[in-house]
Amino acid sequence: MIAPSILNINNLNLEKDIQTTVNAGINRFHIDIMDGHFVPNLSFGPQLVSDFKKAFPSIEAEIHLMSNNPDDLVPAFTKAGAQIMLLHYEAMTEEKLNYWLDYLNENQVKAGVVLNPDTPVSVLSKFISKIDQILLMTVFPGFGGQKFIPDSVSRIKEASNLVNGKVPIEVDGGINGQTAKKAKDAGAEIFVAGSYLFCQNSVEQQIAELKGILE
Ligand code: DX5
Ligand code: ZN
């Protein structure tokens, strides 16, 4: 599955470009939430997610929460209509992470844990029973358009052995035709792509190309 990241879309063209992407057969979008603190950049807030759900009710909104403030933002994005929420291991204590994963489970929002490229994959074993997905960062979070970190391939393999098919592994950062293939061969099943889809040829062409490579 391909989950386009809307981070690199010209904000003034969001609806048009999302519609084109939906027409190309996409049914989930990856929405990067950056708080200017956990990562040195700002992006979108809950209003964008509720506007997205009004305009595209049948399309899944996957929230990649890059923030140290889950106490305010997890409820806010749940209320805004998120279907999937991915929380960074590094952004809060394990106790808090457990608390918010339970909250998401109780509120029928799919839950996931995100790991930065330098966080040991082994920490995932503590959360497997309460998550629907894992997100492995293949760049350090904060900006679109970065290069895939080659060490990610062995981390994907390690995570894949650890979860043993119980939950799908998603990858995020520097995904293009080549890196998606490497990630897939290592065990990834969901591919976030931003600049590869929105910063070159037409989005239809880019999606078709990526789908072809991943088949
Ligand atoms: C990075 C974000 C990514 C980013 C992906 O912090 O989490 O989702 O938008 O963009 P590309 O595909 O350009 O690396
Ligand atoms: Zn992301």
Order of helices and strands: EHEHEHEHEEHEHEHH
What is the CATH third-level topology name? TIM Barrel
Determine Rg (CA atoms, Å): 16 Å
> How many structurally independent domains?
1
CATH H-tier superfamily: Aldolase class I
Calculate the terminal CA-CA distance, rounded to whole Å. 10 Å
The side-by-side strand order for the widest beta sheet comes to: 1-8-7-6-5-4-3-2
Strand content: 15-25%
Q: What's the count of strands?
A: 8
Structural class assignment: alpha/beta
Overall 3D shape: globular
CATH top level label? Alpha Beta
Family: Belongs to the ribulose-phosphate 3-epimerase family.
Pfam families: Ribul_P_3_epim
Cofactor: Fe(2+); Co(2+); Mn(2+); Zn(2+)
Keywords: Isomerase, Metal-binding
Structure commentary:
The chain has 215 residues and is of the alpha/beta class. The chain has a single domain (2-214), classed as Aldolase class I (TIM Barrel), CATH 3.20.20. The chain contains 8 helices and 8 strands; from the N terminus they run E-H-E-H-E-H-E-H-E-E-H-E-H-E-H-H. The chain has helices at 14-23, 46-55, 70-79, 94-106, 152-163, 177-186, 195-198, 203-214; strands at 2-4, 28-34, 60-66, 84-88, 110-115, 133-137, 169-172, 190-193. Helix 4 (94-106) links the parallel strand 4 and strand 5. It is globular. The protein binds D-xylitol-5-phosphate and zinc ion. The site of zinc ion has 6 residues, from strand 2. InterPro entries: Aldolase_TIM, Ribul_P_3_epim, Ribul_P_3_epim-like, RibuloseP-bd_barrel.
